[in-house]
Amino acid sequence: MTTSAIRKRETTGAFALIDSLVRHNVKHVFGYPGGAILPIYDELYAWEKEGFIEHLLVRHEQGATHAADAYSRSTGRVGVCFGTSGPGATNLVTGIATAHMDSVPLVVITGQVSRSFIGTDAFQEVDIFGITLPVVKHSYVVRDTTQMSRIVAASFFIAKYGRPGPVLIDVPKDVGLEQIDYTPVEPGNVTLLGCPASPKQDIRRIEQAANLILQANQPLLYIGGGAIISESHQEVAELSQLLQIPVATTLMGKGIIDETSPLSLGMLGMHGTVYANYAVSECDLLLALGARFDDRVTGKLDEFASHAQVVHIDIDPAEIGKNRIPQIGIVGEVKEVLQQLLNVLKKADKINHEQTQPWRKRLNRWRNEYPLLLPRNSQSLSPQEVIYEIGRTSPDAYWTTDVGQHQMWAAQFIKTYQRHWVTSAGLGTMGYGLPSAVGVQVAHPNSQVICISGDASFQMNIQELGTVAQYGLPIKIVLLNNRWQGMVRQWQQAFYGERYSHSNMEKGAPNFVRIAESYGIKGMMVKTREELETSISTAAKYDGPILIDIHVIPDTNCYPMVAPGKSNSQMLGV
């Protein structure tokens, strides 16, 4: 495209910014305007009018980061969001930290007070560069307007390069207004000092890993979010099938293989399946792919896979040996390393499936002995059966969740695909579910998007119903309403002597159906099994947004559960 398609005049910093975004194939931006960023929004107006880019107006800046984050997770592309200076910028911080913890590539653009006012405590001035340093991959303050296009190109490169993450661009107001002689920097045409070349694989390490796999009697694949990020689903499935190796995933790795496969053990860790946790406790070889051995997965670290030799593959060298020292550590993109590993394994004289058959039989026995339970009370609905029924009737949907018990039940019972599962894992951000559903629906306008939330989490960003309504996004919101902060209540019951300090949400609970209807969104209340069946059928046929407020048993606990400080083989509720 040419800049003359918008207007013929000397270009400004704001022009250079929007033009650079369009050159990087940015189709959608999520944000909220304000004083310091108005030059950018004024420039955006012309570009939107010509159909080059679309801006989605959220109701709170945190919603912008979560929507951009989910847009990225569900597509693999870099998400983009805008916020103004001061409180607008600080409202973005939780979403930036959420993306940072889960390695999501974002470019976050904030307005800032004019350059001459920086450091004077001007109106709506904060040092967002300094505030966000611990939770970004890189940051820029644009002080030289002529560098705008180069900074944008560098930001997109950094956000995606190696282990992905968020990049901040802070744009002073006068930079947006300043006129420059503009020379665009095209995507990829940027040289960055300090970015190492992709690691060359030591074929000897890969051959050693292959030998360990071929010798193992009880191997297990432990798959994290890095395998999803690197689009490794075909390679993971091929490796699992070739050697008949069972697969356990983290919350971030969910969907990497067909979850109905007999080789799929589901999620492991604090609320993982019994058989996945027993498997990791008894395996003799653990193949960790794009996973970071975090505390919610490992339980008591020195008892995690304590009988196993470990092969750890990760793009980030800092993760190798950080929590667990592997016998073989391989730094590289999971997809590329697996391709080389598969090439070596396929040249093996013989792959002996009989060698590992007793292991698979043992896992199947555990699967039959310790299935995930679906409580069915004749009078009331259990949250597990609600999630199971909705998951069963919507096999191709994209799923977003908030954080809490409903998130863990959704991870346990919903069978889904790579990039169809969108949730806040590392930071555990309540309020993520609804704005993330906005991002996914914008990215996939012709797909069904279902948001699973709880009454406590939902109220943290309930205002994004306005965004859903404004753009007519046909999101289906399933609200599991137990009138509690459910996971907090469960911990207070189990570990704090049933002292339920400020976790009950019944007093002051809103009528969620009326709130939805006040935004022009269809609302339904469900209290019985018959009403559940009707609401699922209605939602499936309805072509607009809908909120289903489902009243479930208040004091249901999420099991299995590995208590803090315990090993994965010591689960409550088994």
UniProtKB/TrEMBL annotation:
CDD domains from the UniProt entry: TPP_AHAS (cd02015), TPP_PYR_POX_like (cd07035)
InterPro entries, alphabetized: Acetolactate_synth_lsu, AHAS_TPP, DHS-like_NAD/FAD-binding_dom, THDP-binding, Thiamin_PyroP_enz_cen_dom, Thiamin_PyroP_enz_TPP-bd_dom, TPP-bd_CS, TPP_enz
Top EC category: transferase
Gene expressing this chain: ilvB
Keyword Plastid: yes
Enzymatic reactions: 2 pyruvate + H(+) = (2S)-2-acetolactate + CO2
Keyword annotations: Amino-acid biosynthesis, Branched-chain amino acid biosynthesis, FAD, Flavoprotein, Magnesium, Metal-binding, Plastid, Thiamine pyrophosphate, Transferase
E.C. no: 2.2.1.6
Protein source organism: Cryptomonas paramaecium
Segments forming domain Thiamine pyrophosphate enzyme central: 206-341
GO cellular component terms, A-Z: acetolactate synthase complex
GO MF terms held by the record: acetolactate synthase activity; flavin adenine dinucleotide binding; magnesium ion binding; thiamine pyrophosphate binding
Membership in a protein family: Belongs to the TPP enzyme family.
Cofactor comment: Binds 1 thiamine pyrophosphate per subunit. Binds 1 Mg(2+) ion per subunit.
Domain Thiamine pyrophosphate enzyme N-terminal TPP-binding intervals: 12-129
Domain Thiamine pyrophosphate enzyme TPP-binding: 402-550
Any one GO BP annotation for this protein: isoleucine biosynthetic process
Keyword Transferase: yes
Protein name: Acetolactate synthase
Pathway(s) per entry: Amino-acid biosynthesis; L-valine biosynthesis; L-valine from pyruvate: step 1/4; Amino-acid biosynthesis; L-isoleucine biosynthesis; L-isoleucine from 2-oxobutanoate: step 1/4
